[in-house]
Design brief:
By secondary structure, the protein is mostly helical. It contains nine helices and two strands, in the order αααααααααββ.
Length: 289
């Protein structure tokens, strides 16, 4: 069982904030992405699971967009990421490798992501939450265009909110028009009232939408992220030595190589591999934006 795997116990206990910081990792993640703190904390817990899958799934793995945002942020905490996580806990680096573009790369990361979702369910015994781990089709939908946005210079208007606002404004406008038509006056006051009410409704919606972003928040654009448009990347280890049966942490001490073929076979280790996740591989790899 996963709870008996020492690696999972260590990953589950890993602290992203070493001290009682006034501005915590989860709070920073929430602020940078326009999320609620509660949603950001859930993403951090899914990032833990992604780290575990990277070590135990037996194949390269690719994160969802929200999980990748947590990975991006963790990389900024260089001592926590490279020293505390990779060196001291995992015993090896977990690199973040961007896509090189093109259909071949796109197909590869789609495959890695789908396999990651399947391994998630095998390892943890339940499907990943869809608001953090969407389907492969949604994850790589061509209409996804993530980029940095300075909210000082632009309003952020979630399309769903705008559609609801327009629908509401249309309903109000229709009601106002009917009222104007039923009135005896012919001075155009009804039309003016209609325009005024619609304008007020739209202004209110714009103000509310600019103060709160949807769960996706902001992402990376094609220049500062790790892919153009598809937001996909990954890495896998090659040349790893097999680990002995008592190496339950999966520490093989090997290096890493972007685009490698994964680790060699696991000889009876406990944890995700032996419990049916990844078919007994001590696989290590990762991918994201």
């Amino acid at each position: 069982m996963i709870n008996q795997d020492r690696l999972w116990q260590q990953v589950a206990a890993f602290r992203f904030d070493k001290t009682q910081a006034a501005f915590s990792f989860s709070q920073r993640l929430a602020k940078e992405n326009g999320w609620s703190v509660g949603y950001a904390r859930r993403v951090v817990e899914e990032y833990r699971r992604f780290i575990y899958l990277a070590m135990r799934a037996g194949h390269p793995v690719t994160p969802s967009e929200p999980v990748d945002q947590a990975w991006h942020l963790h990389l900024v905490y260089t001592r926590s990421y490279w020293d505390d996580l990779c060196r001291d806990l995992l015993g090896k680096p977990l690199h973040h490798g961007p896509t090189e573009g093109g259909k071949t790369e796109d197909d590869k990361f789609r495959d890695w992501y789908q396999r990651t979702l399947e391994s998630y369910e095998r390892c943890f015994g339940n499907k990943p939450p869809v608001d953090i781990w969407p389907s492969e089709q949604e994850r790589f939908a061509p209409e996804n265009r993530f980029q940095w946005v300075n909210r000082r210079d632009a309003f952020i208007l979630p399309k769903r909110s705008v559609k609801k606002a327009l629908a509401g404004a249309g309903a109000i406008g229709l009601a106002t028009a009917l009222m104007a038509c039923s009135s005896a006056g012919g001075d155009g006051s009804g039309s003016m009232l209609f325009a005024f009410i619609v304008l007020i409704v739209l202004i209110v919606i714009i103000i509310k939408s600019s103060n709160s972003a949807g769960p996706r928040g902001r992402g990376r654009n094609s220049d500062s992220g790790c892919s153009t448009f598809t937001s996909s990347c990954g890495s896998s280890y090659s040349g790893c030595s097999s680990k002995s049966s008592n190496d339950t942490d999966g520490h093989s001490g090997c290096g890493s190589h972007h685009g490698g073929s994964g680790c060699s076979s696991d000889s009876g280790s406990s944890g995700c591999g032996s419990s049916g996740c990844g078919g007994g591989g001590g696989g290590c790899g990762g991918g994201g934006d």
